[in-house]
Protein: protein-disulfide reductase
Organism: Saprolegnia parasitica
Amino acid sequence: MSSPFEALFGAEVQTKTGLKPTAEAFAGKTIVGIYFSAHWCPPCRGFTPVLSETYAEIVGDDHKEFELIFVSSDRDESGFNEYYNDMPFLALPYANRAQKDVLAKTFDVRGIPTLVFLNAAGDVITKDGRSVVMNAHGDVSAVLAALAKYGLCGGQTDVKSPRMGRHKPSSYMRRLALVEGAGVTVVVFGHGVLPAGVGLGVLPAGVTEVGQGVSVDATGDVEGAGVTVVVVGYGECFQRASD
């Protein structure tokens, strides 16, 4: 049975010592980052040393479940080789241009640098891995904690919901009703006003509400007058309302 990473990257990936079977390279990996980048891109060159140092520290701390792979948008192989020389992780072979295009389309990459994190099944944890790394300010434990938090929520987007100002209170309550499991905390913060009737009485058993004004690390920016909801703990994240 082929691994999801063989379907994404092909039969072989590039290591610092040569090609390696993809299944072997990703065996036991439960957090996989795909790094879309290029040497000609100044923001990429600024982020790559930060990402490389973060990777080295995480792997150095014996987190064998963690892996990164570089997907190059360099204009030629010499540019790729020069850039990859400074990276300690895996790479999609430069010759595999068709697969690079498939990956960019699959993950809707519209600009670089982009860092997408996947779980062991190849499902998206977050497409904003760059912010996860940068917001940690060199603290690798914060990187892993943020990714674990996203992973508990099933991935695909982020832990936080759309801003409350864009949704009716009824939509908000339906969304909260889908949060299940003991040990889940719903954190509400921001500058807006909580919808009338939202309180402990409308939350499922085992869910605790932390009031407006609470600060939570690694949750992203809160802007404007809306309210953001963050789910922390074990259970299911709320689903996006259709209205």
In short: Residues 54 and 140 are 6 Å apart (CA to CA). Residues 164-232 form one domain.
